[in-house]
Amino acid sequence: MKPFLPFTRPSIDEESIAAVADVFRSGQLASGPKVAAFEAALAAYLGGNRHLRVMTSATAGLEMALEVAGVGAGDEVIVPAMSFAASANVIARLRAKPVFVDIDLHTRNIDLDRVPAAITAKTRAIMPVHFAGLPVDMDGLYGLAAEHGLRVVEDAAHAIGSTYHGKPIGSFGDLVVFSFHPNKNMTTIEGGAISTGDALAAELLEQYRFHGIKRNAAGEVDVMFPGAKSNLTDVAAQIGIDQLRRLDGFNARRLDLAGRYFDAFQGFTGAVMPARGDSGHSWHMFQILIDFAARGMTRVGFQKAMAERGIGIGVHYPSIPSLKFYREAGYREEDTPVAARVGRETVTLPLFPAMRDEDVERVVSEIKAVLK
Ligand SMILES: *Cc1c(COP(=O)(O)O)cnc(C)c1O
């Protein structure tokens, strides 16, 4: 029996483990010099002209980015109908209204052609997702935002290391939020970061993530508003420093593995492949669509059959309007049919830097066998 192949696994090396042990020995555990060093390293990675602030998750980051963008009760925010629920939850938590726009079947990104029809007098912001690490059409996105006077909060949870026309995601744009959850392309265990070109926004983010506290020139503390408690620890930041050093290597390996999937599926008509993009795709995930209903099969049945063959298959994600909270809020899955279809048919195949070339061939031949 071959070892079980999960759909993802973080790569933590012994050097990182030793560096974390040193942080423990330093006695400085909560936000301190390692957080500052991690933020400086992220800023340098993104070209050196951005302000970076880290926090405990992308979810916390998205919520504070929306607040900094001025989103509040009654406002509308445009978001793709297929993403992780957090993309819409953060809007709902601010008592604002998520307005779902359908996605493209191949890129799985928000269909920008459908955005203008979703804009109303209450729309404040657009929150695209660079799905699976494939950047959205940034010229189109920022053109729309400028034309309609909207803020942009990029959910870049999948896109650390992705590039658009050669420029890293997060090296430009309004408020760009990354995730460092262990399933993402680099990890701090839990964690996230916001990149912005606006120094004032960065200062506000610092307050949002730590009780609303501001220090005056004399060093006295004041509280400007009831902020959150979402500051990253130095232990986590040290992991991030090591992961960031290895990120381009991780992503190059992901790109290579994705290419091997395309080769291995060459000529196979039983599934819809993802858009290939260019070398700027960070390949956070590789997802194919299978029409399970037409095959008289369920997705869970498929996952079980694959697990019996030693292969982990994930589901990312059901369409957000299909989820209980959103159904009960009156959203209908049928209004965004492409997202609904992707939500029903999508499966995530194993893809992580430590995977071997032959694992790809094994996954593809087992899929073909299970679907036969
Ligand atoms: C993972 C993810 C998030 C949330 O990231 P956390 O760091 O776990 O909060 C948000 N949006 C998308 C699209 C994600 O995949």
How would you characterize the largest beta sheet? 7 strands, mixed
Number of discrete helical segments: 11
Q: In sequence order, what are the helices and strands, one letter per element?
A: HHEHEHEEHEEEEEHEEHEHHHEH
Q: Low-confidence segments, ≥5 residues, pLDDT <50? A: none
Task: Name some characteristics of this structure.
single chain; 372 residues; alpha/beta; Aspartate Aminotransferase, domain 2; 7-stranded mixed beta sheet; two-stranded antiparallel ribbon; 37% helix; binds pyridoxal-5'-phosphate
Q: How would you describe this protein?
A:
- There is one protein chain.
- The chain is an alpha/beta fold and 372 residues long.
- It has two domains: 14-241, 3-Layer(aba) Sandwich (Aspartate Aminotransferase, domain 2), CATH 3.40.640.10; 247-371, Aspartate Aminotransferase, domain 1, CATH 3.90.1150.
- The protein is 37% helix and 14% strand.
- It contains eleven helices and 13 strands.
- It has helices spanning 14-26, 33-45, 58-68, 86-93, 138-148, 199-208, 234-264, 299-308, 324-328, 337-345, 357-371; strands at residues 51-55, 76-80, 97-101, 123-126, 151-155, 163-164, 167-168, 175-179, 192-196, 213-215, 221-223, 286-289, 346-349.
- The strands form four sheets. It has a seven-stranded mixed β-sheet, with helices on both faces. A two-stranded antiparallel ribbon has the order 6-7.
- Strand 10 and strand 11 form a beta hairpin.
- Helix 3 packs across helix 4.
- The radius of gyration is 21 Å and the shape is globular.
- The mean pLDDT is 97.
